[in-house]
Fold:
Amino acid sequence: MFKFNREELRDKIYACWIGKNMGGTIGGPYEGVKEMLDIQGFSTKKGEPLPNDDLDLQLVWLLAAEQHGPFQLNAEVLAEYWLMMIPPSWSEYGVAKANLRRGFAPPISGEADNDRWKTSNGAWIRSEIWACMAPGYSGIARKYAFYDACVDHGVSEGTIAEVFTATMECEAFVNSDIRSIIDIALANIPAESRVAKAVKLVIDCYEKGVAYRKTRDLLVEQSADIGMFQAPANVGFTVLGLLYGEGDFKKSIIYAVNCGDDTDCTAGTVGATLGILKGTAGIPKDWMEYLGDDINTLCINGHVARRIPKTCTELTDRVLDMIPVMLAANRENAHETTGKTEWPEDRLLHGDKWCFWGSESPHSPMLGKALLDTAPYSYDFSNYIYLYGRCAFDRKPALGEGESIDLRFDWIIDYCSASCDIKVFAPEGLKVEYDKNLLVHGTHITDFTMKFTAVKRLEARNDICIAVYFPDHIKPVFIPLMIAGK
Structure:
């Protein structure tokens, strides 16, 4: 059981949002600068924090969690909120929203036709909400961070980056040592990823006493082939600020901004992480007084703006209210105490490491596979009661006349073994070959493959519905998917 002191967590969570607002406001005016900088602090008007998509999107994710509950919260729910509530269509945001509108669900929405931007910064800059709703439970934070990031980054470096920052920020609630939280986050992403290599470069330079400006140049050189506004170098700048700043709030944010590139993102994440680590006592009073408590927004549809928090104080209170619900959805009990906050020994077994079959909640990692091992062109599906699974194409699902593509299914049914009937409803011109009847063994993985062939030129959008009928259940399971025409 998680015993939490509400006021203790309140101070850390409030400092997180103040730090996020502060870093974004200090870094915002310098976003996109290519050269090294030499800033000293705020260059904006007193009492007016800059609006920033880094924070705006997290306010929408909070609303999604409140309205649907974390039991039902997954990538497809967040994708709908993208379409309903978030107007911007720049970079990966625009590609993902275009893919969603054409019928590609996550993570395909973040993969298809997104080679330029799926390694970019849009996801890892919005990870604090998951860390704060599951403080100290980094497995839970990673799971929702993956759902969040895969909508517009697929299963790529941009998603790996959010898994890294969510883990780092979540562990900051438990561990007060900066290097330790970085090491833990690094251990939870693929070692061969570009994000991991950037972080390792910074750690190595810091340990060898390399000057921070030289380390910054090495990061730029390491990412020269993918250019600016990409996750590896900018996560590296964030880690640089945290390590070279050595716990000093002002120094850490200034170092991150001085690296240039996506300055509001790097400084905002540094500020949020140090806010969690040190609470309000670690934030300079003159900077807190200069900025204030308000949240200004830029990227949220007007019709929902009235339902989002207007201040860091309100945001903190609403996040605190979600903590017991978030933990309950991931099989952990939370109890408020007047004593010190205490985490159980098995806290790391919840979330991405807790689920093997995925049967305790419909959006759990499916079939015992790590989230970052998810096939890029795949769909998760369930009927929320007894059937859970994933189907995956081996490439982008788009067919020209005469071309074929395979769709592999892995699924599990709880409670019973049964013979099921399968029917596929597909548009004219799309031939489907598959086994019509399957024996599904309870608690054992069933796998099979369908082949789709375009026997003539297809329409731009070709919606398909796979219906699976079980004799012992009320309704069939419907699996919707889409194959694009070339």
